[in-house]
């Protein structure tokens, strides 16, 4: 029972099929002028069109990269280097790809807070825009699944003449998303979060927006990202974008939402002391972030894994580390609550039966852990035969 789709989503069968020919027979370099190269170029441009279509962009606004992390680093470094005066304004709940690259810039980074349900404090955001050089806010939080008000954040940035970047990695494929809404100048995408392959992503750069490349070399991607394109992965990303668009229009994500809600209700009904984190009225359909009173998330993860339920404590990049997640701290959670939270993230590849089985396993694991752990005096070590 794989309930960890926000960490990475399973590759769709259709994506696998679409990529296959380009690993072997279609090995040519899209920059070559011979017939094989021309075919590769056509496949590359088709994928660009498919990705652009998913987000309502023009084809020449899409730059393929190696994933979300590269897109974020390339964009922030570029804007840092353009020399405008002022700080980099972002939010306290961004992914580490934004926060760590923000720390590496030549200027001060200010991270705007959120409230207890994870919504951005827009009045503080506005206050700091007047002295910002550029700004960035995520569309959807990877831990809680909260949909941030990126439209309003970007519109305010535009009013102050501040370029705005959006990390939309967790939004795509989960909710309808268009760069025509709000005032987004640049945006990061990652294929493996919407049933595409890992190691490929894209940077959207609105026409007329200044952007200097991070990688220099052969001048691929119109000089904006040098390096021979990873064609099979890019083709896979295009195919995944087509499927993602279909899932949103066919109501498949509404079904995912029904599974998530049923899972959550069953857990809430099955054990006491469970809290749902993040604004329930503004969440992506697949994510359930729960705190279990008097239960160490690390212990729960082990018990659930033994039962075949895969989920996460904090974001994937944080798991294994013991300190509470920065997202939950920003939401004002105590260390104990933050360390007792798990993220369950479903996808269209789950079934209602799985969701209900997983809920039963969660209830069992919570009861078992509480019985051995006592009054929340953790951490405990669970010995397995
Ligand atoms: C919100 C967010 N931004 C950026 C990234 C990084 O994307 P990638 O894994 O493609 O580098 C992730 C991955 O977990 C993410 O959740």
Can you describe what's shown?
The protein is of the alpha/beta class. The protein folds into 2 domains: 13-248, Type I PLP-dependent aspartate aminotransferase-like (Major domain) (Aspartate Aminotransferase, domain 2, 3-Layer(aba) Sandwich), CATH 3.40.640; 251-373, Aspartate Aminotransferase, domain 1, CATH 3.90.1150.10. It has 12 helices and 10 strands. It has helices at 13-19, 35-55, 68-81, 96-103, 122-129, 150-159, 231-250, 252-270, 297-306, 326-330, 335-338, 352-373; strands at 62-65, 87-91, 109-112, 132-138, 164-167, 186-190, 201-205, 274-276, 287-292, 341-345. The strands form 2 sheets. It has a 7-stranded mixed β-sheet, sandwiched between helices. A 3-stranded antiparallel β-sheet has the order 8-9-10. Strand 4 (132-138), helix 6 and strand 5 (164-167) form a beta-alpha-beta unit. Helix 9 (297-306) crosses helix 12 (352-373). The two termini are 22 Å apart. The relative contact order is 0.16. The structure holds pyridoxal-5'-phosphate (PLP). Pyridoxal-5'-phosphate binds next to helix 3.
**Amount of beta strand:** 5-15%
Give the low-pLDDT segments: none
CATH architecture of the largest domain: 3-Layer(aba) Sandwich
CATH superfamily of the largest domain: Type I PLP-dependent aspartate aminotransferase-like (Major domain)
Largest sheet descriptor? 7 strands, mixed
Amount of helix: 25-40%
Large-scale geometry: globular
Main sheet: strand order = 1-7-6-5-4-2-3
Per DSSP E runs of 2 or more residues, the count of β-strands stands at 10
Distinct ligands: pyridoxal-5'-phosphate
